[in-house]
Write a structure and sequence with these properties.
The complex is a heterodimer of chains A (632) and B (287). Chain A is mostly helical and 632 residues long. In chain A, 73% of the residues lie in helices and 4% in strands. Chain A has a domain of 211 residues. A two-stranded antiparallel sheet of chain A has the order 1-2. Chain A has a two-stranded antiparallel sheet with strand order 3-4. Chain A is globular. Chain B has nine helices and one strand. In chain B, helix 1 packs parallel to helix 8, helix 4 runs antiparallel to helix 5 and helix 5 runs antiparallel to helix 6. The chains are: A mainly alpha (632), B mainly alpha (287). The interface between A and B is large, with 66 and 65 residues. Strand 5 of chain A pairs parallel with strand 1 of chain B.
Chain lengths: 632, 287
C-alpha cells in the first residue's frame, strides 16, 4: 500500500503538470481543485500507511535508474542551453564543473543494485506540508495569475502551472527517497524549476535573478555531488546510512551536504537568490519560500543531525544558523517592501531551524522539526495575503497598507493571524522559539543571538500588524471575494489554529519518534493540562488559548453593558477638516494639510547597505572556521 | 481550594496595591516638586469617574485591544504568583504590550501612531534584557521554573547584580516614566498629546488604567524575584526599584528614543551578557 502511495505522490503531480500543459486555460481552476484534493487525500493516506522502508531492485530498478540518468543528462543539457542562450558565463562555468563531476562519478563509482525509499514521520510531515500547502498555493494562483498577467502583458500560464506542479513532484521525491543519487536528481530538479519560475516575467531583472538563483544553488549542487563521491568511499549510498555511522571520516561530506543545504535554504552568504526571487509572481514566492525549495535544505540538514550532533561542527552550525537569524531579522526591520520583509523573515527563521538542529540536543532538534512545519504554514499564508493585498491596494509598501482593515476586513484578519502566529504565544512558531531558547541556554553565544533576533522579529512584525489594523478614514471599498483566493487562505489560517491547538499531539506523533531515531533518545516532554512540559520548563499554550477566548467574550459582554457607543472623529488639536478627510488639519497658513505618520525603519542602523557586508564577511568566516575546526 | 483563594487574592488584591502604588507615585512626586498633590486614592477616583463617562470611540474595535491587554497582564501576574516558567511569563507579557501598541495604532490618530512606533522601539530595548534575565535564572537553577528558586541557598541578586541594574532601567521604561516617557505619559506632551492612548477615553481609558495597576504589581514582582528566598528582602528590593523609578522620573528630562535603544543595546546589553557569560564560564549553580 505504501509503495503505491509513494509512487502516486511522485507521478500524479507530473500527470497534473502535463494536464496543465495540455488543457486550455479555462479548465485550470478545475485542475487546481482536483490537484488540491489529490494533495490532501494522498498526503493523509501516506500518514495512515505508517512508516517503513522499501527497496526497488531488479529490472524495475534498472529501468528507473536509466530514467534518472537520462533526466540528469537533460537537466545538464538544459542548463547548458540557457546559460549559452543568455550568455551567462558564471553559470556556464559552474555547469562545466558539474558535468565533469557527473562524468567522473559515472565512471568511477560502483553501480548500486537497488534504491530505497525511507518513509518516517519526518517525511510524512514534509509530505503534508508540500502537498497541502503547495497545492493550496496553486489553487490560489488560479485566482491570481489572470490579473497578474493582464498588468504585465504576459501569456505564460502554461509554463507557470506546468513548472509549479512539476516542482511539487520533485519535492515529493526529494523527501521520500533515501538513495543519495536519486535525491541528487530531485535536488537539481527543484533548482531548475526555481530558475524557470523566478525568471517567469522574462524581463532583464527576472532573468538575472533567475540565473543568480541557479548559480548559487549549483554551488550547493556541486557540493552535493562531491559529497556523494566522498560518501561512496565509505560505502554510504543512502541518507539513512549517514545517520547510522558515527562521526570521523564522514564529517567532510556531511559538511559539504550542509553547504548544499545552506545554499538551498538561502542562508548567508547565499541569501541573495531568495531576495531576487521576489520579482516572480507571489504564488512562486509562496511556494519557494514556505513549503518547498527552502525546506529541502533544512530537511537534509535535520536528517544529518546524528552525524554532527555534539561535535565542534554541530556547534559551528548552531552559531552559523543563529547568526543568520539575528542579521536577517535586523535587515527585515529596515525594509518597507512587504515581500522583502517576508523574505528576510524566511531566511531568519530557516537560520533558527538550522541553529536549533546544530545545537543537537533532543529538545533542540524537535524544535527544528516543529519550526519547519509551523513556519511553512504561517509563511505561505503571509505571502499569499501580501499578493492579494497588492491586488487590492496596488502596492506592497507597508506604509500604503494602513487602513487595510476597512478595505478588506477578511484579508486583514487572515494576514494578522499569520503575523501573530509568527511572534506571540500560543501559536506554534513561538513555541519553537521557546524550545530553542530553553535548549540553547547551554550555549550562551547561541542564546544571546536568539534573544536579540527574537526582539528584532517582534519589531518588524508588530509595526506591520499595527499598520494593517489601523483604521484610516478612507471610504470602505467592497472587495469581490473570490473563492479560489479566499479558500486557500482560510485553509491555511485554520491550519495555523488547528496545529497550534493540537500541538502536543503533533509533537507526540510526528516529532518525538523522529528525534528518537535520529539521536537515540527523544526529549522527555509531557503534555497534561494544555501544557508543553519539558525537563526545564513549561509552555502553557492551553491557558493562553483559554484566556484569549475569555478576552473576546469579556469584550463582547462589556460591549453590551457599556452602550451606546458613539463613533467620533480623531483628535487633531481641534483643527480637523471634517468634510474632506479626518486626517486633514488646518496649518499655520490656514490651508489644509494631511497628517501622515510612518513607522520607524532605522535604515541608518539596520539598512542593507550597513549590514549586508558584515553579514557576508561573518557568515563566510563561520563557514571557514567550521571547515577548519570541525572537519579537518 | 487554596489555589482558588490565591487567584482571587491576586485578582482583587493586585489592583488595590497597584492603585496605591500609583497614588504614592503622585503623592511623592508632588512633594518633590513642593506641591501638596492629590489624595492617595486619586487614581481610584480617576478610574471611577472614567467608568461613568460615555463610551466614545473612533474605531469600533479599539476597546478589544484594551481587554486583551488587561487579561494578559493578569495572566502573566498569575503565572508569576504560581511560579511558572519565567520565559513563558515574559512571552505572555509581550502579548499585552503588543495589544496596547496595536490598539493605539488601530485608532489611526497620528499622535497614537507616533506613540506606538516609539513603544515598539521600547520593546526592542527591553525585551532582550528580560529574556537574558530568564536565561540567567536557567543557568543558575537548571530550570526556567521559578519554583526552583525556593530551594536556592542564596538570593539571585548576589549572582546577577548587573542584570539587576539593567532591570532597574527596564522598570523605568515599562513604567513609562521620564526619561523614557516618549510613547505616552501621565503628563501631557505637546507634540504627543497622550501618545498611544490619545483616542482612548471613558471606560476604555479606565480599562487601561486598571491594567496599569496590575502591570505595576507584575513589574515589581519581577524585581521581588531577585531576593525571593526572603520575602522581606524581596519586598525591599521591589520598593527600591519603585523609588528608583520615581527619583529618575523627577530628576531627568525626556530623551530621544534613539538614545534609549543605543544605551540599551550597548551598555545594558553588554553588562547583562557579561553577567550571563560569567555564570556560564564559572558554572555557578544555586540549587
Amino acid at each position: 500500500m505504501m509503495e503505491k502511495t509513494v509512487m502516486l505522490l511522485i507521478t500524479v503531480p507530473i500527470l497534473f503538470s502535463l494536464l496543465f500543459l495540455a488543457l486550455s486555460k479555462k479548465l485550470y481552476k478545475f485542475i487546481a481543485w482536483a490537484f488540491f484534493l489529490f494533495g490532501v487525500i494522498f498526503s493523509v493516506q501516506l500518514v495512515l500507511d505508517g512508516i517503513g522502508k522499501y527497496e526497488i531492485a531488479g529490472p524495475n530498478f534498472a529501468m528507473i535508474e536509466n530514467i534518472v540518468l537520462v533526466l540528469e543528462a537533460l537537466v545538464i543539457l538544459y542548463i547548458f542551453y540557457v546559460s549559452v542562450k543568455y550568455k551567462n558565463w558564471p553559470t556556464l562555468g559552474l555547469i562545466v564543473i558539474q558535468t565533469a563531476i557527473s562524468i567522473y562519478s559515472f565512471m568511477n563509482i560502483a553501480e548500486v543494485e537497488s534504491a530505497s525509499f525511507n518513509i518516517d514521520q519526518l517525511s510524512q510531515v514534509m509530505i503534508l506540508i508540500v502537498n497541502i500547502v503547495g497545492t493550496a498555493i496553486i489553487l490560489f494562483a488560479t485566482g491570481y495569475m489572470d490579473e497578474y498577467e493582464e498588468h504585465r502583458h504576459l501569456n505564460r500560464q502554461r509554463t507557470f502551472y506546468f513548472t509549479m506542479s512539476f516542482f511539487i513532484a520533485a519535492m515529493n521525491g526529494l523527501v521520500l527517497v533515501d538513495t543519495l543519487g536519486w535525491l541528487y536528481l530531485f535536488w537539481e530538479l527543484t533548482t531548475l524549476c526555481s530558475f524557470v519560475l523566478i525568471s517567469y516575467n522574462m524581463d532583464e531583472e527576472g532573468i538575472n535573478n533567475g540565473f543568480r538563483a541557479l548559480a548559487l544553488n549549483m554551488v550547493g549542487g556541486i557540493a552535493f555531488s562531491v559529497a556523494i563521491i566522498r560518501f561512496s568511499g565509505s560505502d554510504i549510498v543512502n541518507l539513512s546510512q549517514v545517520v547510522g555511522t558515527p562521526g570521523g571520516v564522514i564529517l567532510l561530506p556531511v559538511f559539504l551536504l550542509c553547504i548544499a543545504g545552506f545554499a538551498k535554504s538561502a542562508q548567508m552568504p547565499f541569501h541573495s537568490w531568495l531576495l531576487g526571487a521576489m520579482v516572480a509572481p507571489t504564488p512562486v514566492s509562496a511556494l519557494l519560500h514556505s513549503s518547498t525549495m527552502v525546506n529541502a535544505g533544512v530537511y537534509v540538514i535535520v536528517r544529518l543531525v546524528p552525524a554532527y550532533a555534539g561535535t565542534p561542527l554541530g556547534t559551528a552550525i548552531a552559531v552559523y544558523g543563529s547568526f543568520t537569524f539575528v542579521i536577517c531579522s535586523a535587515l527585515a526591520v529596515s525594509q518597507r517592501n512587504a515581500k522583502r520583509v517576508l523574505a528576510y523573515s524566511t531566511i531568519a527563521n530557516l537560520g533558527l531551524i538550522i541553529g536549533s538542529a546544530g545545537i543537537g540536543t533532543p529538545l533542540a532538534v524537535s524544535a527544528a522539526i516543529m519550526l519547519i512545519l509551523f513556519h511553512a504554514i504561517s509563511k505561505a499564508l503571509l505571502f499569499l495575503c501580501t499578493g492579494e493585498i497588492e491586488h487590492t491596494i496596488g502596492s506592497r509598501d507597508i506604509e500604503d497598507m494602513s487602513g487595510l482593515i476597512k478595505k478588506a476586513p477578511l484579508l486583514t484578519m487572515l494576514a494578522s493571524l499569520g503575523m501573530i502566529s509568527m511572534l506571540l504565544p500560543p501559536f506554534g512558531v513561538l513555541l519553537t522559539k521557546w524550545i530553542s531558547l530553553e535548549a540553547a541556554a547551554s550555549n550562551p553565544i547561541v542564546t544571546i543571538l536568539i534573544v536579540l533576533g527574537s526582539a528584532l522579529t517582534t519589531v518588524y512584525y508588530v509595526k506591520w500588524l499595527g499598520t494593517i489594523l489601523s483604521s484610516s478614514m478612507d471610504k470602505k471599498t467592497t472587495t469581490h471575494l473570490k473563492l479560489e483566493t479566499y479558500f486557500p487562505l482560510s485553509v491555511l489560517g485554520l491550519s495555523i489554529i488547528a496545529t497550534s491547538i493540537l500541538l502536543f499531539s503533533i509533537f507526540n506523533y510526528f516529532v518525538n519518534p523522529v528525534v528518537a531515531t535520529l539521536l537515540g533518545t527523544g526529549p522527555t516532554i509531557s503534555g497534561q493540562g494544555g501544557q508543553f512540559v519539558s525537563e526545564i520548563g513549561g509552555f502553557a499554550y492551553g491557558a493562553v488559548f483559554i484566556v484569549l477566548v475569555l478576552a473576546i467574550l469579556i469584550y463582547y459582554a462589556a460591549k453590551m453593558a457599556i452602550a451606546p457607543r458613539q463613533v467620533d472623529n480623531i483628535y487633531m488639536c481641534g483643527e480637523n477638516n471634517l468634510d474632506k478627510d479626518k486626517l486633514m488639519f488646518r496649518n499655520g497658513l490656514c490651508s489644509y494639510d494631511k497628517s501622515s505618520v510612518s513607522n520607524i525603519y532605522m535604515e541608518n542602523t539596520f539598512g542593507e547597505s550597513k549590514l549586508s557586508t558584515i553579514g557576508y564577511v561573518i557568515s563566510i568566516l563561520i563557514i571557514i572556521i567550521a571547515l577548519a575546526g570541525g572537519v579537518l | 481550594m487554596n489555589e482558588i483563594l490565591k487567584i482571587l487574592l491576586v485578582l482583587i488584591g493586585a489592583p488595590i496595591v497597584g492603585c496605591l502604588i500609583a497614588g504614592l507615585d503622585r503623592k511623592i512626586t508632588s512633594r518633590l516638586q513642593h506641591r501638596v498633590g492629590p489624595p492617595l486614592l486619586q487614581p481610584y477616583y480617576d478610574v471611577m469617574k472614567l467608568l461613568q463617562k460615555d463610551n466614545i470611540v473612533v474605531n469600533k474595535s479599539q476597546n478589544l485591544y484594551v481587554v486583551i491587554y488587561i487579561i494578559f497582564v493578569v495572566l502573566s501576574l498569575l503565572m508569576l504568583v504560581f511560579e511558572a516558567d519565567i520565559l513563558m511569563i515574559i512571552f505572555v507579557y509581550t502579548i499585552s504590550s503588543v495589544a496596547l501598541i496595536v490598539g493605539g495604532m488601530s485608532t489611526g490618530s497620528p499622535y497614537a501612531r507616533i506613540g506606538s512606533s516609539r513603544e515598539i522601539m521600547a520593546i526592542l530595548s527591553y525585551e532582550p534584557i528580560l529574556i537574558l534575565y530568564a536565561v540567567a535564572i536557567y543557568i543558575l537553577t537548571g530550570t526556567f521554573n521559578l519554583s526552583a528558586l525556593d530551594e536556592a541557598s542564596n538570593p539571585l541578586l548576589l549572582y546577577i547584580p548587573f542584570i539587576f541594574v539593567s532591570m532597574l532601567v527596564v522598570m523605568n521604561i515599562k513604567f513609562k516614566k521620564s526619561p523614557f516617557d516618549y510613547s505616552t505619559s501621565h503628563h501631557a506632551h505637546q507634540e504627543l498629546v497622550k501618545g498611544m492612548f490619545t483616542e482612548y477615553s471613558g471606560p476604555g481609558l479606565a480599562g487601561i488604567e486598571i491594567g496599569h495597576f496590575y502591570e505595576y504589581v507584575f513589574l515589581l514582582g519581577l524585581m521581588f524575584v531577585f531576593w525571593k528566598v526572603n520575602i522581606l528582602m524581596g519586598l525591599i528590593l521591589a520598593v527600591i526599584a519603585f523609588l528608583f523609578v520615581l527619583v529618575m522620573d523627577n530628576i531627568t528630562a525626556r530623551v530621544y528614543w534613539q538614545w534609549m535603544v543605543k544605551t540599551s543595546w550597548t551598555v545594558l546589553l553588554i553588562i547583562s551578557v557579561v553577567n550571563v557569560l560569567y555564570l556560564y564560564v564559572y558554572d555557578i549553580k544555586i540549587v
